[in-house]
Design brief:
Layout lengths: L2 H6 L25 H14 L7 H14 L3 H14 L5 H20 L2 H25 L1
Helix pairs in contact: 2-3, 3-4, 4-5, 5-6
Length: 138
């Protein structure tokens, strides 16, 4: 899925039914064992307190685990922390764009203009991060 598709909230599963499947959605699959996910969340949170740990990678893993456990706002917090630690394109950036668009869509369905504005501001901030990443790397 392209950058602008993510920005506009278009999902890969919105393709016509007769179109060949070219990719799988990047949303983490639900875990078979919620207790195992909860245990791993605790382990990752404890690892974040260790010196020398790769905090960006741990926050990214925590974001995926939070998504698996059905906590999109917790996932957003973790992915944002990952990008704060190490601004880069990757899983955290892509998942944030998807999660922000999902939250914006839900706010639109609920008719909550304040929430729509909040999520659009988050998308704008993420795009600004994208520009910063591009300037730093090129």
């Amino acid at each position: 899925m392209g950058f602008f598709d993510r920005l506009l909230g278009k999902r890969p599963d919105a393709e016509p039914a007769d179109a060949p499947a070219t990719s799988t959605p990047s949303t983490p699959e639900p875990a078979a064992d919620p207790e195992a996910v909860a245990r791993r969340i605790t382990e990752v949170e404890q690892s974040l307190t260790a010196d020398g740990a790769d905090h960006a990678a741990l926050h990214e893993e925590l974001g995926g685990l939070r998504e698996q456990s059905g906590d999109p706002l917790g996932a957003i917090t973790a992915y944002e922390a990952s990008l704060e630690e190490r601004p880069r394109y990757g899983e955290s950036y892509n998942r944030l764009m998807d999660l922000y668009n999902t939250q914006r869509s839900q706010a639109a369905e609920a008719g909550d203009s304040a929430a729509i504005n909040r999520w659009m501001s988050k998308i704008d901030e993420l795009l600004a991060t994208s520009k910063r990443i591009m300037r730093e790397n090129y």
